[in-house]
Amino acid sequence: MRRWKTRHDDLILKAEVDGLADRSDWIARLW
Questions:
Q1: 11 phi and psi angles, rounded to 5 deg
Q2: Distance between CA 31 and CA 21 in Å, rounded?
Q3: Per-residue b/e over 6-30, b at no fewer than 16 CB within 10 Å?
Q4: pTM of the predicted model over 0.85
């Protein structure tokens, strides 16, 4: 259970990082 939660947290963290990267690319295009 703890291993699954750790993996789940990693997926959420990766999704947040990917979202920030996409947002940075979008802002870079505006400039």
A1: -65, -40
A2: 16
A3: eeeeeeeeeeeeeeeeeeeeeeeee
A4: no
Q: What is the DSSP string of 1-31?
A: -HHHHHHHHHHHHHHHHHHHHHHHHHHHHH-
Structure confidence by residue, pLDDT tens digits, 2-20: 666 778 888 878 888 887 7
Residue that is written with structure tokens 């990267």 in the block: 21
Q: Integer distance in angstroms from the first to the last C-alpha of the chain?
A: 45
Cα–Cα distance, 17 to 19 (Å, whole number): 5
Place of tokens 């959420």: 12
